[in-house]
Amino acid sequence: MSSPSSLSDNKNWLLAAVCLAALGMPLSFTGPAVVLPAIRDALGGSPVQLNWVTNAFMLSFGATLMAAGALADAYGRKRVFLMGLAVVALSSSLLTLAPGIVAFDLARALQGLGSAAAFASGTAALAQVFDGAARTRAFSFIGTSFGVGLSCGSILSGWLAESFGWQSVMLSPGAISLVALCIASLSMRESRNPHAMGLDVPGTLTFTAALTLLTLGVLQAPDSGWGSPWVIGALAGAALMGAAFIAIERRVAHPMLDLSLFRFPRFVGVQLLAAAPAYGFVVLLVLLPIRFIGLEGRSAMEAGVFMFALSGPILVVPTLAASLAHRFSAGVISAVGLLVCAVGLLWLSYCGPGTPLQAIVWPLLLIGAGIGLPWGLMDGLAVSVVPRERAGMASGIFNTVRVAGEGIALALVGAGLTALVSLQLGRLPAHPGATSQAAQRVTTGDLSQALALLPGVDRAALLHAYGAAFGTLLCVLAGVTVLTALVVFVFLRGETHAEAGAVALQSTAC
Q1: Most buried pick, 147, 395, 405, 486, via CB within 10 A?
Q2: Model pTM?
Q3: Is residue 119 a contact partner of residue 159, using CB atoms and an 8 Å limit?
Q4: Are 22 and 430 in contact (CB under 8 A)?
């Protein structure tokens, strides 16, 4: 029989394993954005294929998160956790061995599946072994680990790329996953839900198909045109699969997505809050490294320093949100944070290509600090705005909306930036038929190919066109962020100070 001290040690080692898994996930997201120009040089690929480097991971992660949780409950949380970590490690190795960009994108999708399995089962396992205040502290550590990975990922990736090559960046999440796997295999006990109903297969398939077709259509539109039969077919298929998913979830006895939760106005507000960082913050984690390295010619390490100014506040500002939540409602704190983020986006829109670090760091810090306020409240709010017995489902929906929303936002914002760049290039003395292709090359950081397509345009004119388009995009994102702030304030303003304080303590640093 295990002694209390050994049980406590096992809990702490389990927490360490899940924290390591959480640390590796943002590296899987931010790392490829930093080394995308190097990946393009090594593996080639069209602009659409290069966009899938990020979107394949986000799509598979977001589409399978709830399904992974159901599998963990039914077949064993330890089993699914270890399997997920093994898949992450395997896919990381496959990324360095990929013979071409298509194989690389497929390995990225596999990495997203493994990350979803590890995240869903790891957090579920922790919820079984920690209670009360200990559970709050445990999930706070997970949030902190994720924040460290997000904040330091760009600098680490830049250092690895310059020291050991882009392959080392791809291997880093796998190395962390292997360490987590070794710890968990020794310290984690198997657990499952004896009343679990298994996987909602029709719901999972239609949900995944809807997200896949939507992402495919949006990514293909800049290349084929929004009127292309392929694009129209993909978007129509996404709408059809989405409608089928809703119809299925309304009829099955144990749905993957409980649609009745959307009857709670504050729950709807939290979902909008979950999507807000996608277009106000997350898209910049991908777009800015491409700009800094591919277009401006900065080193990967220098770009990492720029990105730390953007993501670094995530480490400290959520703690401020926790203290403010004792005096102000979550709606007020979240709305103020989003408005601060919008001001930073507007400020950044005036910083064209080549802006020195001392000038661009301030709007980046403002964006990160603004997002940090609602970031510190979101996870706890996700479960506090619904009845306690439905908290598990609410958390699953929230995380799915957040991750899937990030993938969709990346696709939409990327397509929007390409269209804006194409519009700017159309004003230059260049061949009209080449501007669309050149715009796609520019937005993926391939400046040399863009110049080759536009022989009458020099580098300065091309960067000026990109800067004007990027500034317009940031103004649009700022407007969307302001609108979201107003809606979130209306939906969440009724929360009492006491409830907000409890929520903040649950999700500090998450």
Answers
A1: 147
A2: 0.84
A3: no
A4: no
